[in-house]
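dumping this here so i dont lose it
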């Protein structure tokens, strides 16, 4: 099981790098753009941390809320549905 989570974490890092354009920032980029990129990166990292924590701890009730209010997951423990009154993150 640990190997599976390590693979998911490596995949998340690759996706983060792809989303940020490989981390290369041109010298001519404005300060505002660089700040926005850093804020976006921080938000992506927080989302990935939340995702991995909930997956590792098997907190399915909060895990399902990461996606959509009308989502459901079908796992060994059964089908978990997001409460209709809870907005997605």
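and the seq i came up w/
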């Amino acid at each position: 099981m640990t190997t599976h989570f390590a693979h998911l974490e490596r995949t998340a890092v690759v996706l983060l790098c792809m989303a940020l354009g490989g981390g290369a920032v041109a010298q001519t980029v404005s300060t505002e753009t660089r700040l926005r990129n850093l804020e976006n990166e921080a938000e992506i990292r927080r989302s990935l941390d939340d995702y991995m924590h909930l997956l590792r701890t098997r907190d399915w009730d909060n895990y399902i809320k990461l996606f959509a209010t009308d989502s459901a997951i079908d796992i060994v423990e059964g089908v978990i549905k997001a409460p209709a009154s809870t907005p997605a993150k």
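The chain has two domains: 1-17+28-57, 60-89.
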